[in-house]
Amino acid sequence: ILMVDEKGKNMKCLTFFLMLPETVKNRSKKSSKKGNSSSSSNSKLPPVCYEIITLKTKKKKMAADIFPRKKPANTNTTAVQQYHQQNLNNNNTIPAPNWQGLYPTIRERNAVMFNNDLMADVHFVVGPPGGTQRLPGHKYVLAVGSSVFHAMFYGELAEDKDEIRIPDVEPAAFLAMLKYIYCDEIDLAADTVLATLYAAKKYIVPHLARACVNFLETSLSAKNACVLLSQSCLFEEPDLTQRCWEVIDAQAELALKSEGFCDIDFQTLESILRRETLNAKEIVVFEAALNWAEVECQRQELTATIENKRKVLGKALYLIRIPAMALDDFANGAAQSGILTLNETNDIFLWYTAAKKPELQFVSKPRKGLVPQRCHRFQSCAYRSNQWRYRGRCDSIQFAVDKRVFIAGFGLYGSSCGSAEYSAKIELKRQGVILGQNLSKYFSDGSSNTFPVWFEYPVQIEPDTFYTASVILDGNELSYFGQEGMTEVQCGKVTVQFQCSSDSTNGTGVQGGQIPELIFYT
């Protein structure tokens, strides 16, 4: 009886001689004729029948569990490395007759076929004309990994082609998708992740597509948010779209000044210009639109004249809230740009100065922007005659959040001895790297209120990582300081944790000191 498990692995072999009645009768006759027959002669008789019994095990094990990976001998190590190196090149073949024995699992053996001509029954010519690459494939493996490939090779309308042209996918992105299908490995890079997402969407490989989106979300910043917004709408990824809007709203001026803003399509441009929660000055929005128009003229092979810039902007120009600009910004910027007609310029000047305002095609209502939130970490404050004094020393605290936020500035205590002015150098670091800093002054009125000091641009803060907030104050007067500090504060939907910083040399810590507030956008 051959006892095997559900995977066909030999568990135990028990040998029985199951004698049929006729066989027993014949053997008895032979024994009576030859009394000196030995047991050894009987043992040579083959078994008449056998049965295979499947044993159900309590826990199913994969091949990798049954054969844990060990360091092979030196000869095998060299061979495996050689095959892996060959696997990186196109049209490679495996000369060794027993290469299968080098890999204990089906996953590893299957991975050997990645980008390999051995047993390939289809080839793909991938990429646009002039930049194509011929890649081998195996229909069965591809069909198992993608419903599109299954329909292509085994569906009712399948075509028996040895070579398939794919001009709309980049070779590097197609290889990344094949590597996932063959090797169950996700290998993404910043310069090819969008193309890989396109390939994963086209061939319906959802897990790879999700990995691409996760990669994009973790690498999202003001520099690439506008481009990713455009792509996320194209790929119908609402979660990524929402993340892009969060970055664009909070870091609007950085996003609008980025090179990626000029690469967006017209529809995305309109959606950004229409955005009510953009946290930016309107003159910055205006200048960004003109920069986009100049690049769009180049894309349409037009001379970048004032007329052509206005032509490519079209009705999107009226989404810029020029009447909501500061008068100085309009007079020194938009009014002298040449993009406005003479009548538009006169009407907008009248809008600023006249009691009876003319009708404008431009939106005149200022944007709402974002409302900053304040996380206050002290339960009370106080002042004493000998502290809190500033002599160029650093007050510092570390903090971490559980959701992505954008730190806009700090709330600081002011003078406890009447009105006073302070010079503040604020700084935000992560693992010693400066992410944002600013030098400014603020005036305190002698109350125990906190006074905001802002960074030039909000700083993006990732969750579950400690950052260091620091300030160096310069002022003659003693100030209030916080007491009864909390190690964890719930601020809306964001949880903030605090811990002491080794950079603090002026006494600030979790229990007391300066930097009572973090000011942020969510």
TrEMBL record:
Annotated localization: Cytoplasm
Keyword match Protein biosynthesis: no
Bias (Low complexity): 34-44
Domain spans labelled BTB: 120-190
Cellular component GO terms held in the UniProt record: cytosol
Keywords, in A-Z order: Cytoplasm
Full protein name: BTBD3 protein
